[in-house]
Amino acid sequence: MSEPKLQNDVFLRALARQETEYTPVWLMRQAGRYLPEYNATRARAGSFLGLAKNPDYATEVTLQPLARFPLDAAILFSDILTVPDAMGLGLDFAAGEGPRFARPLRTEADVANLAVPDMAELDYVFAAVRQIRRDLHGRVPLIGFSGSPWTLACYMVEGAGSSDYRTVKTMMYSRPDLMHRILSVNAQAVAVYLNAQIEAGAQAVMIFDSWGGVLADGLFQEFSLAYTRQVLAGLVRQHDGRQVPAIVFTKGGGLWLEEIAASGCDAVGLDWTVNLGKARAAVGDRVALQGNLDPMTLFGGADRIRAEVARTLDSYGAGPGHVFNLGHGISQFTPPEAVEVLVEAVHQHSRQQRAGS
């Protein structure tokens, strides 16, 4: 059966820094708890992992926001911790507590035993990618993703989320050899994992370096960016005759924008602390930029949302290379109506920009 023609390629053209009729928009965590239909599907699945590990459910929730809003890309519904889970660390999601590993990496033996997982352990992810692509019927592109080697390591060593990263930073400072071993294995695993998503049908991939911004300057380059570079160098960038762009998002990474832009990615995701116009001037035509509205703007009412969307788009200015997004994931408490206003405002204002330029 032939592949359906992609009906809306504005997102991919923006990542390639080509001219587009308007600025494309998608949202980090766009399939999530702010949507009542997502909560209903999650209840049927019985748990978060029951949802994420079932391709039928993962497909259903991936497509839900596209049924509500004219978004320009879909993103695979999964979790960044699938890879360490497949490494045997025992992932669980306790109600109200977030992810937790039963067997975190704490000893030299733990680290020595770490290995790139068999991708067969993650076939539920690739099955979901294939199913989502089929069910999209070429409507919009599908984004695959992974956590960065450093962000995965934070969870793998801490055993859960952390407010001070004391355990992982203790290892980093006192036993950098162990930390580098974890990161090396993670980088190999993430590259293989993303390539398998591309093989299954992901048309773009994103690396979430959610905790890169907790590192000091110098250490970010050594323990986070160096391993993100390794992942990018190992990616298949062409598949089935098409380019597969890669986006890197480091929360709190504005200080290192130019270094991230030089890492081998096609686009840099920005959080809301970065001025888009200055960022564009800094990176020139090397990469596209993605971002970067404060997610809390969506609680400010329709008029304020429209104003902040216009301010963000005007900050970037006319011309190619911008994908509109939030500066981090959407809050579970966001009114869906606010997202409707946001998407409409991005499309409308960016069309007006182009008409006036």
UniProtKB/TrEMBL annotation:
Pathway: Porphyrin-containing compound metabolism; protoporphyrin-IX biosynthesis; coproporphyrinogen-III from 5-aminolevulinate: step 4/4. The record marks 79 as: Transition state stabilizer. InterPro entries: UROD/MetE-like_sf, Uroporphyrinogen_deCO2ase_HemE, Uroporphyrinogen_deCOase. Residues 24-33, 143-159 form the Uroporphyrinogen decarboxylase (URO-D) domain. It catalyses: uroporphyrinogen III + 4 H(+) = coproporphyrinogen III + 4 CO2. GO terms for cellular component: cytosol. It holds the Pfam family URO-D. It is found in: Cytoplasm. Homodimer. HAMAP family: URO_D. Catalyzes the decarboxylation of four acetate groups of uroporphyrinogen-III to yield coproporphyrinogen-III. PANTHER family: METHYLTETRAHYDROFOLATE:HOMOCYSTEINE METHYLTRANSFERASE RELATED, UROPORPHYRINOGEN DECARBOXYLASE. Belongs to the uroporphyrinogen decarboxylase family. This is Uroporphyrinogen decarboxylase. It comes from Pigmentiphaga kullae. The gene is hemE.
